[in-house]
């Protein structure tokens, strides 16, 4: 139980604060939190200079926000149909 308790403690330190009425969304955010903690543990064992959990989460978040989207935001949605006046 020591490893499971330690994982739960690490997840609760920086848990995503999203409230939802749907059970599967809470389950999804819990899985993301656990995956981030496990990735941080693996990164800490391999990295030359280990980082804190908070800085690792910030780095991952910034990396995902910098990704290029596959669609053009100007052409997204329904086409603009203007009737001639």
Helicity range? 55-70%
Q: How would you sum up the global shape?
A: elongated
Mean pLDDT, rounded to whole units?
A: 83
- Which blocks of ≥5 consecutive residues have pLDDT under 50? none
Global Rg: 20 Å
The chain-level structural class is mainly alpha
Sheet bearing the most strands, described? none
Number of helical segments with 4 or more residues = 3
* Series of H and E elements: HHH
Distance, first to last CA? 73 Å
- By DSSP, the count of extended strands is 0
Q: Estimate what percentage of residues fall within beta strands.
A: under 5%
Structural notes for this entry:
There is one protein chain. By secondary structure, the chain is mainly α. It has a domain at 2-57. It has 3 helices and no strands. The longest helix has 24 residues, at 23-46. The radius of gyration is 20 Å and the shape is elongated. The protein starts with a helix and ends in a 19-residue tail after the last helix.
What are the SSEs and their pairings?
Elements: H1 2-13, H2 23-46, H3 53-66
Helix pairs in contact: 1-2
Summarize the structure.
The chain is an all-alpha fold and 85 residues long.
Characteristics:
elongated, 85 residues, 59% helix
